[in-house]
């Protein structure tokens, strides 16, 4: 297994992962990743910024994420808390794992890789958000040393919990 930047031939597999993750969340009663998001447009934007990654085994995509090195406009306002550091920071979005390979540490490998990338790019830290009912993702985030900082609102004013981890922290 290795983590590499997403290539054009990975696009169908990544889109299939997004779709299956959307269905999983829907079955959990979570309205995150619904209404055809994430999609090919968001994937292409991530790829154009050289920020889309896949964890592959041979050429099978087992997981994916976006790790971007730019301020996220949705993080400019945080409620019921505050960020503990300023720019520059990395952002992780659209992290998901192939549903046929649960409990194999794939999401952890991707998130650890994102933290390493943030350090290599001299970011002050890394930020991530998730739905208040997405307890699986919250557990992963907390396991990797992120701290809950408050509430943020993303597209369509959707409430998310905002987390961050300083680059000075180690695993």
Keywords, please?
Aminopeptidase, 29% helix, globular, seven-stranded mixed β-sheet, alpha+beta, 171 residues, 7 strands
Q: Could you characterize the architecture of this molecule?
A:
The chain has a single domain, classed as Gcn5-related N-acetyltransferase (GNAT) (Aminopeptidase), CATH 3.40.630.30. The protein is built from four helices and seven strands; from the N terminus they run E-H-H-E-E-E-H-E-H-E-E. It has helices at 11-27, 40-48, 106-120, 135-143, and strands spanning 2-5, 52-57, 60-68, 90-97, 125-130, 147-154, 158-166. The chain has a seven-stranded mixed β-sheet with strand order 1-2-3-4-5-7-6. The longest helix is centred in the first third of the chain and has 17 residues, at 11-27. The chain is globular.
What is the SS-derived class?
Answer: alpha+beta
String of helices and strands: EHHEEEHEHEE
Helix content: 25-40%
Number of strands: 7
Morphology call: globular
Q: How many domain modules?
A: 1
**Spatial extent as radius of gyration:** 15 Å
Question: What is the CATH architecture assignment?
Answer: 3-Layer(aba) Sandwich
Report the CATH C-level class. Alpha Beta
Find the CATH topology: Aminopeptidase
Number of helices: 4
Arithmetic mean of pLDDT: 94
Biggest sheet statistics? 7 strands, mixed
Summarize the structure.
Helices cover 29% and strands 29% of the residues. It is of the alpha+beta class and 171 residues long.
Topology:
Blueprint: E1 2-5, H1 11-27, H2 40-48, E2 52-57, E3 60-68, E4 90-97, H3 106-120, E5 125-130, H4 135-143, E6 147-154, E7 158-166
Parallel strand pairs: 4-5
Antiparallel strand pairs: 1-2, 2-3, 3-4, 5-7, 6-7
């Amino acid at each position: 297994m290795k983590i590499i930047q997403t290539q054009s031939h990975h696009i169908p597999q990544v889109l299939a992962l997004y779709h299956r993750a959307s269905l999983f969340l829907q079955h959990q009663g979570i309205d995150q990743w619904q209404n055809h998001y994430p999609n090919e447009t968001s994937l292409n934007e991530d790829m154009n910024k050289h920020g889309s990654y896949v964890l592959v085994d041979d050429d099978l995509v087992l997981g994916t994420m976006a790790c971007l090195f730019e301020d996220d406009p949705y993080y400019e306002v945080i409620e019921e808390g505050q960020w503990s550091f300023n720019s520059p920071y990395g952002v992780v979005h659209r992290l998901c794992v192939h549903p046929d390979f649960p409990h194999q540490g794939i999401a952890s490998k991707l998130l650890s890789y994102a933290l390493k990338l943030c350090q290599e790019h001299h970011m002050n830290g890394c930020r991530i958000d998730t739905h208040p009912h997405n307890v699986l993702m919250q557990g992963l985030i907390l396991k990797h040393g992120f701290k809950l900082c408050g509430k943020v609102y993303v597209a369509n004013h959707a409430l998310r919990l905002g987390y961050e981890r300083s680059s000075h922290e180690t695993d």
